[in-house]
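Project standup — Tuesday

K.O.: blocked on the structure for the chain from last sprint. Re-posting the sequence here as requested.
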Amino acid sequence: MSPPNGAPPGTAETEYLKVPTEPKPTPEEQQPLNDLVPEDDAEVVVPPDGGWGWVVVFASFMCNMIVDGIIFSFGAFIEPIKDEFHVTKAYVALVGSLMSGFYLIAGPFASAVANRYGFRLVAIMGSVLGAAAFALANFAPNVEYLCVMFGVIGGIGFGFIYVPSIITVGFYFEKWRALATGIGVCGSGIGTFMFAPITAYLIENLGWRTAILCQGTIVFACGSFGFLYRPLKPTKVHDIKGEGETELKMDPSKLPPITKMKMELALEAMKSNESCHNSQASINRMLGVNNNANYPRVSDVYHTISIPQQRALDGSSYEKRLSVPFISEADRMKNTGAKECLLQKSANPIIVPKGSRRGSAVDPEVNRPMYRDDIFFNASLTRLPQYTSRTSIAYNLSVTRLPTKNDIEEEKKSSCKMCPEAVKRTLATMLDYSLLCSPTFLLLALGGFFTMMGFYVPFMFLVSRAENANLAKEYTRFLISAIGISNTIGRVLCGVLSSFPGVNALFVTNAALTIGGIATIFSGFSMTAEYQFFYTAVFGLAISTFASLRSIVVVDLLGLEKLTNAFGLLLLFQGVAAIFGAPIAGAFTEATGSYDAGFYLSGSLILASAVMCYPLNYINRREMQKKKEMVENKSVPV
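H.V.: unblocked you, prediction finished:
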């Protein structure tokens, strides 16, 4: 078919559409850019938004139900273990706190392993490790043995179950991510509701040792649910299809200067260790890799090739491909004119990879989930401007980071390495503590630290306090279950609220924690069944808000690129806080002879965490303004 305006056959599309192009670089200039792209076809995981994904949601729900149900019901073990070993309640509480803490601390390491070996293997490893720890805890001769076996090793096993259960759902869903993730995490509340009375029943009738053994059997069942985490087969970029015929192509000669500069900087980060040694974070220097945000996205390397569906000016129809890079609308209008811009708007994006090789050498079982910027975002994607301003295909390309050639070679050779690059790169991202230089993040992390210090205290001592006040057992047995029910309801409500872009997630979280902290301080005001169940309902709603809206708050304050880094550091902060919170509250209880002292401490910590985070939006605006001024000052010539 002839080109428009009577252009002679063989004329390049960029010539007859008058699209200005830069001079073609020499082979020496083009080689560095080409090194950024793996020799094999780039691959992207496109969420199917259904199908087997709903089976994954079920598996996630069951894993969350078992793990959180067991953790939150540990308070039932405190009295029998204390009586057998003749130790204080605070000392026994340390066992459960260690499990809660290491369950969170293990998160970054479980994520790193999952990035290389997949969700399925990590979940199965966690279930085997957790079940073995519970089985061996059955033979505990003292509390110290329980701390190591049940607390530390069991907590690490739970961490390896927990991480796949919260991120694999987001890997399968895009449009329905909020709903699917919400269903999965509701397992936490349902597990709390179910396991509290079941654990109490097992202890009363079989003893605490057999109860732990029974729980270990249930933990082992998580392996079967983990097996349902079937890996998604990555799609080669050239195989991704939009609504019509679409293609992507890598051609460094057509990249805008800004993109070239970014890619050259990324190349330095990918090709040598020098940039790692110059990094502010020693974790990067030690591992020899950079934070994932320093690597290019797929959309930085590939261009849209569009097929205009217009007719030529002379009335004849044509179908020619115009190759242009991903650039802003303003730049496109400036460089190509309104006419070409309109042609681009009407075109359908198609995807063609660099190179002619077909067939990927990459293990199809490996999806590199941690190379996605949004992997820990568990709310509706409509809150992200990256999602609302792009098509589905363009969005997935814009949040997926490219692997390095070395990364692909390690998978291709299937070599047994202690720490492959896919693992090191995830650790370098999640543990990059240079983020602590941000006042916004530092305050957010400290707030989370105080919240988690008070978080587990009611789960540990609420039932014991009620029994000490002679509340009937038919009521005390279901106090923790009531927290689980209100927690589930709260997560559903938060899911609905978060679907509205105008909702201020930070304010909602702070308000809920304020109410929850005050309610915990006054939880001992009356020991009637009605008042205690009222308190559990308020507390359950408060903590559900903290858990559900955390990723939204991080993205609103720090941006999507920082989410994985922030999530990793927050897990460490919260894990350390969880280890010490309940034992300190238990020590207060022992010292004063009253359970109320522990609840005063817990409520005060939760309240303080909310109060210190109220000015976060203001601090964040000041920080952004300061960074903007620094950039502007650097750009002014001297």
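K.O.: great, moving the ticket to review. The chain is about 65% helix and 5% strand. The chain has two domains: 12-41+234-356+401-407, 53-232+433-625.
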